[in-house]
Design goal:
Domain Formyl transferase N-terminal: 1-169
Radius of gyration: 23 Å
Oligomer: single chain
Strand content: 25-35%
Domain Formyl transferase C-terminal: 204-306
Keywords: Transferase
Organism: Streptomyces doebereineriae
Largest sheet: 7 strands, mixed
Number of strands: 16
Order of helices and strands: EHEHEHEHEEHEEHHEHEEEEEEHE
Distance between the termini: 57 Å
Structural class: alpha/beta
InterPro entries: Formyl_trans_C, Formyl_transf_N, Formyl_transf_N_sf, Formyl_transferase-like_C_sf
Strand order of the largest sheet: 3-2-1-4-5-7-8
Length: 315
């Protein structure tokens, strides 16, 4: 089939590479300009560079809603559009233009985790598996019929970076497998159960600020979800920002006020956590590695030279 692609960052790059390696013919690529947004500078393999290396025409757009783009797509005459990690609304006159419509590739197990940063949100929420879904695009966000979907398990120590590598490897088989079904004439696909749908926003600084009223298990997953190269989860100690690079749920139960720097346990320093910490029925978060405001990284047992005092959400 003749394929036009809309995509960005490494997700779009992997999708384009899969298309170039397939029997399908890539006739036009549309991608976003480079961004200085913290999350968009990560996994930033260039879709434009890959397309140009293979002689595929490229258009750079923030939004795909101008008349020139529409005419270029019409002239390219694609049988289908494939989109992956396109960051802005695609209007119906674009996604309905090809005779097979538009196939969107999304890194979650839809209908859950539609929207942005699905791997990070899924890890924070303790989901047992993550994956990639190829679905037909319609007027609703990530809501069209599912053509193909594959899952991978989330391990007990997996970080968001680990899950990125697990799921990015699914892009090629999911995308090409879905296109092969469409090319073979299949038109009936799996309807999404909209009662199970959830939608998530882009992550920002507020989303990585540690709230010590969260249970320790949730905080431990937040730390793993904000693994390098993502911005690290952070708190404040004596008015200065402190990044938490590694932590585990404590073995013991610790009671008191959330945020209290309480006790050395193994290789970590336990911080009291949980909205009901006063009951003493819950574990704390044992921080094992930190980074200071001036960029010095060290074991938590070296940073916390004495117990007592508090970690806080704000200076």
């Amino acid at each position: 089939m003749r394929v036009a692609m809309l995509g960005y960052q490494t997700w779009g790059h992997r999708t384009l590479q899969a298309l170039l390696d397939s029997e399908h013919d890539v006739v036009l690529v549309v991608t976003h300009p480079k961004s200085e947004h913290a999350y968009e500078k990560i996994w930033s393999d260039s879709v434009a560079d890959l397309a140009e290396e293979h002689g595929v025409p490229v258009l750079i757009r923030n939004r795909p809603d101008d008349d020139e783009l529409f005419e270029r797509l019409k002239d390219a005459d694609p049988d289908i559009i494939v989109a992956n990690n396109w960051r802005t609304w695609i209007p119906p006159r674009i996604f309905d233009l090809p005779r097979h419509g538009t196939l969107n590739v999304h890194d979650s197990l839809l209908p859950k985790y539609a929207g942005f940063s699905p791997l990070i949100w899924a890890l924070i929420n303790g989901e047992p598996e993550v994956g990639v879904t190829a679905h037909m695009m319609n007027d609703e966000l990530d809501a069209g019929d599912i053509v193909r979907q594959e899952a991978v398990p989330v391990g007990p120590t997996d970080t968001a970076t680990d899950l990125f590598h697990k799921t990015v490897d699914l892009i090629a088989p999911v995308t090409i497998g879905a296109l092969d079904l469409i090319a073979a004439g299949q038109t009936e696909f799996t309807k999404q159960d909209r009662s199970q749908a959830s939608f998530f926003h882009k992550r920002s600084t507020e989303d990585i600020r540690i709230d010590w009223t969260w249970p320790a298990a949730d905080l431990e997953r937040l730390v793993r979800a904000q693994s390098e190269p993502y911005p690290s989860a952070f708190t404040f100690h004596k008015g200065k920002r402190l990044e938490v690079l590694a932590a585990v749920v404590s073995q013991g139960r610790y009671g008191g006020t959330p945020g209290r720097i309480f006790y050395r346990e193994g290789d970590g320093v336990v911080i009291v956590a949980g909205a009901d910490a006063r009951t003493g029925r819950n574990p704390g978060l044992a921080i094992t590695r930190v980074r200071t405001e001036d960029g010095l990284e060290m074991p938590a047992t070296e940073y916390f030279t004495s117990m007592g005092g508090y970690l806080t959400s704000r200076p």
